[in-house]
Amino acid sequence: MTSPVVRMLKQQVPNAEVHFLTKKSFDSVVVNNPFIDKVWTTDGSLKDVIPNLKAEKFDEIIDLHANLRTWRIKQSLKVKSSTFNKLNFEKWLLVNFKINRLPATHIVNRYLKTVEHLGVMNDGEGLNFYLDNSIQSNNQILPSNFQSGYWVAVIEANHATKRFPTNKWIEVVKQINFPVVIVGDKNDAIVASEIENAYGVTGVGRLGALLAIGVTQHAANRLGETNLGAWVQEVLARQDGVWAKLTEILGGYNLLGNETDVGIGRGLTNLKATA
After folding, report:
1. How far is it, in rounded angstroms, from Cα 86 to Cα 107?
2. What are phi and psi for residue 81, nearest 5 degrees?
3. How many domains does the chain have?
4. DSSP label at 115?
5. 96-111 per-position pLDDT tens digit
6. How is residue 56 annotated by DSSP?
7. pTM over 0.85
8. Torsion angles phi and psi, residue 206, rounded to 5
9. DSSP SS3 for 265
10. Minimal CA–CA distance to 55: which of 77, 28, 31, 74?
């Protein structure tokens, strides 16, 4: 969801040098982005990365996460900063009491508020995800029995309210007459195993995040949504799609209308998304 901010900063701010700090587990989401000059990673501890960030002598910090760790970084670097308003109280009111005081706008537009003072304007190009150029085709990723067609079941989600229930995944997967690729992270291993055991191990495989995007680029049918930690989303099934998603009130709807808003490097820009 933050990719438009990176792209517009790089394209619209003269001579901008854009660095991006993220957790090591998420670096595959941004490492191939051509609008990022350098990717910094942390394993959760900031004691090693902060001195290196200080040495860069940044002009400004754009804080798109707004948590305790990013506060520590801003306090340590002591440079100008602009911070995303997470509207946590407003979200709490909505989730717990169904009182809606959230702005009627996409979350990307809220992210862009952090760079408006730099003259950055929405270019209307949506989200981006860029593949590793070494991922050329599914022949390099999937076994031979997947080459004639398959479904992708994206089971990853951090919160139970965002997950499609395991028993429902099993019901759906049992009705699919194609091999199935299960996409998730290490925390989804138990659910993946349950689906595999119910389906029968033959014809079911698992992939990591970056390879999963390569697979969905070439997939004939998809089931689920790709989240990948940073809301690389809405690469959805063109037919018979089932997925769980956030309420649109929170700003997580299709950014560009009827077309999918994910632009994938080397293709996948014109798929229809169902809502």
Report:
1. 9
2. -145, 155
3. 2
4. G
5. 899 999 999 989 999 9
6. H
7. no
8. -125, 150
9. coil
10. 77
